[in-house]
Amino acid sequence: MNHETLRIWAWRLALGTAILVGILSWQTNASFLRIMIRMILSFLLIYGLSYGSLYGFEKAASPNEDLPENIVSESEADEGRGAFLDVAVGQDEIDPPLAGQVDADLSEGLPDEAKQADMVRRMGWGE
């Protein structure tokens, strides 16, 4: 999807939200002025958040023409480091060498069959 299509969908989402807010405000017997203010504010809020998200993702993404130069090398991929997006979210370095690993021994491969059987027995699955 290109930027223009996403911008149109953000506009449709904001318009639908504004109409829904208007209907709900009308059912609560709000005055016409309050209904209009609520609809305008809800439209601006939803459209602003949607468009801001699109803008942020567009600025964080690498341009297509620079793609071969921006591809992460294998050594950086092994370290779990990306390029611009990691810097944008404040992750210059990832401290734990095994991010997401529960058992540090799993980084060396699966345990042998005896250890697996012992783990199964301790979990109560071997019965």
UniProtKB/TrEMBL annotation:
Transmembrane annotation, as ranges: 6-24, 36-57
Domain of life where this protein originates: Bacteria
Keyword vocabulary terms for this entry: Membrane, Transmembrane, Transmembrane helix
Region spans: Disordered: 101-127
Comp. bias (Basic and acidic residues): 112-121
Full protein name: Uncharacterized protein
Source organism: Desulfitobacterium metallireducens DSM 15288
